[in-house]
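--- STAGE predict ---
source: upstream dedup step, 1 unique chain passed
mode: sequence only
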Amino acid sequence: MGGQGLNKRILHVDMDAFFASVEVLRRPELKGRPVVVGGSGDPTRRGVVSTASYEARRFGVHSAMPLRTALKLCPKCVFLPVDYKEYARVSEKIKKMLLEISPLMEDVGIDEAYLDITARAEPSEQIGRMIKERIFRETGLTCSTGIAPNKLLAKIASDLRKPDGLTILCPGDVPELIWPLNARKLPGVGPKTEEWLKILGINTIGDIASKGPEWLRDKFGQSFGQYLYEAAMGVHESPIITEWKPKSISREETFEQDAANWQTVARALALLTRDVVSSMREEGYTARTVTVKIRFEDFETLSRAKTLKQATDDLEVFRRTAFECLGRIELKKRVRLVGVRASGLEPAREFS
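--- STAGE serialize ---
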C-alpha cells in the first residue's frame, strides 16, 4: 500500500447535520421535523442552505442549495437563521474533548476533525464508541466516526453509515467497500471532475482504480491524475496537521436586492473591511494584500488587489486600500455581491 504505515490509526469525527442538530437541541419541539439552517432563515429571501436535517434531506434538500429551492422541495420545512457564534461555541467544546483523547488533532472545520489514535492502547472500536458516547453525553449531539490507516480512508469511512455511525476500515477492505462507491465519494472529486469522469465512462471509485495511473495522468494531468489513482487504491500519505495557518481571511455579502448605487456598495465594503480586520486581530495576524471582489447582477465577477509594503492590521489603512481597489472597478451594472479578502498573512507578534 505505497509504504504507508499499516499500524497507523487515524480517526475522523464528523458531526451529524451539525447546525440543524444544535438548533433542535435548543428547540426540542422540532425533533423529527425537517429543519433547514441558512441565511436569515427566510426562504423567500436570497440565501443558501448551510445545513439540512436528515428529515429535510429526504425531500432532496442539501447544503449550498438556494433557500427558495429548498422551500419548493419541502414546504413544511422549518427554516432558521445561521447562529454561527453558538455553533462555534459547541464546536470548541467538542474539540477540547477530542484533544483529551489525543493531542494529535487536525481541526478541519467547525463540524469535523482528525485524530491520530495510534498511541492509544485501546482497540479502535472501543475508542470510536468512547468518543461518540462522550460527545452525546456532554452535548446531546450525535456524530459519525471512521477509523482507518490514513486520513482519506477515515473520511470515507465516517460517511458510510451516517448518521450516528462507526466504521473501521483496513487496506484490505478497499475493493469490497470503497470501489463500489460513486466516484463523487472520493475526497477531491467535485462536480466538474465527476462530470468529466462520467463522460469518460467512469462512475465508481473502482472504475477510477481500474484505469491505472498512466491513463489517469494523461487525462487529468501528472499531479491530479496520480492523486486520483492513489486515492482510489486507498493510498494517502498526508500527515495530521496540528497547527494550521490560514492563507487568507475574507468576508462577503450578497445583497437582498441588487445594489444600484455606489453608496450601498461602499457602506457594505466598509462594514466587511471592519469585520475582516477584527477577525485578523482576534486570530493574531497582520496582512499585506487587500482584495475586493464585486459580482454584478449578471454574475460577472471582478476583483482588484493591492499589496502593501508592510503587513498591518491597521483598520484605516485597510479601509483606504479597499476603497482604492473598489475605485478600479467600474460599477456599470447593479451589484449582487461585494467581498473583501486579506491575504499574505503574517503573525502579528513579528511586528509588535
